[in-house]
Structure formats: C-alpha cells, structure tokens
Specification:
Helices cover about 55% and strands about 0% of the residues. With about 220 residues, the chain is mainly α. The chain folds into two domains: about 120 residues, no CATH class; about 50 residues, no CATH class.
C-alpha cells in the first residue's frame, strides 16, 4: 500500500514530462488517482519509470492508469482503459504475445526433434501441442474520443472554465479561499467522501517539487 506522500513524490517525478500540469488541483487529482490505482511501492516505481521513459508529453491521468493496467490490475478493481502509449497498445501487446508463443513453440519443436533422434528405432512420440493464439478485440477509437471529450468537459465545468478547455500554465493565481471552495466542489462532483483521501488533504501533502529527486529513465 502506498501513502499520500509517495503518490505526491511520483507526481512530482512525472513533472519532467512536457505539458505536465502545474496547477495544485490537477496534481492532487492525479495523486488521488494513483492512490486508487496502484497497490504497492514497487509497482509505483515501475509506473513512474516507464511513463518517463516512454512519454515525451504528459498523456493525462487516464493514460497513466491505462499504462499501469497493461501490467497490473488496478487496486480499486475499476475500469481498465485502453492504452494508446506507443509500445503498450493492444496491438503491441498482441505482437509481444505472439512473439513469445513463437519462441516457446520453437523450443518445444526443437526438444521434440532432439528426443526423437535419441530414441530407439520405432519409438512413437506425440508431437508437442501448438498453442492457440489469443486475439484482442479492436479498439473503438470513436467511442474513446467521445469519452475523452466528455471527461474534459466535465472537468472544465467543475473548475468553471467557460471555454471548456483547461489551461493549467499561466492561469491567474487564486486565493486560498477560492482554492478551498474549488476543492470542495471537486470533491462533491467526484464523490470523494473519505477525509483521509480528500483532494484538500492530498494537495496539502504533496511534497515541494524542489525537494524531490528526478527519476532516471
């Protein structure tokens, strides 16, 4: 199990990615998603390392969760989005599975031939069984695009952005009272009721970015 601080450190380490949000609320929401998704520190380290090594730009919280789900089941047992990060897409996973099966099949065939050469004349061997390839259903990209747009719009409504496009960099500085009110509204909209897991507590627990060591790719 990971702590709020460990999730905050992971968020700060991923800040090396281009277009990573500087807004405290956005970072708190990402940390809250990590707390719900990642089950232990070893898996969290894997997620940060792979995200930094394979993404030039921040892909968004949905794709961070999707990247994690390519290797592990989410802790909350919730949805497992389709990953679109190169090297971790369904097509990449299918290709990797087929390559692994081809290597295993080649080993079995070689062992069968070796056993047959060493056997006494007339000995009958059953050939090794060949695995049946598993197919992954094609992704409905149109549905994914619609879902992503709806998610952006819901978040835009939550923070009161009239243009329905969120600009985290260069936004006007809010007062503490405005931040507290926005955090309460986001908690109500997101259904976050646990005091220990509230966005306010997560935001307050995030470490100073200056004190967090950069992660290696």
């Amino acid at each position: 199990m990971i702590t709020i601080r460990q999730a905050g450190v992971a968020v700060s380490q991923m800040a090396v990615l281009k277009c990573f949000p500087s807004d405290a609320i956005a970072r708190a929401m990402l940390a809250e998603m990590i707390l719900r998704t990642v089950s232990d520190t070893e898996r969290l380290e894997w997620l940060v390392r792979v995200a930094v090594a394979n993404c030039d730009e921040y892909p968004g919280p949905k794709q961070i969760r999707a990247l994690y789900c390519t290797r592990f089941k989410p802790k909350d047992g919730g949805d497992q989005p389709t990953c679109t990060i190169p090297g971790f897409t369904p097509a990449d996973s299918e290709r990797g599975y087929q390559e692994l099966q081809a290597r295993e099949t080649a080993k079995q065939i070689e062992a069968y031939r070796h056993q047959k050469l060493l056997a006494a004349p007339g000995t009958v061997f059953d050939p090794p069984p060949l695995p049946e390839p598993k197919r992954i259903e094609p992704v409905d990209r149109q549905t994914e695009d619609i879902e992503a747009m709806e998610a952006r719009n819901r978040l835009a409504d939550a923070v009161g952005v009239e243009s329905r496009v969120i600009h985290f960099r260069g936004s006007p500085k809010r007062t503490d009272e405005e931040n507290a009110r926005l955090l309460q509204e986001l908690q109500a909209r997101l259904g976050i009721n646990e005091p220990a897991r509230s966005l306010a507590s997560i935001a307050a627990s995030l470490p100073d970015p200056q004190s967090v060591p950069a992660t290696s790719a």
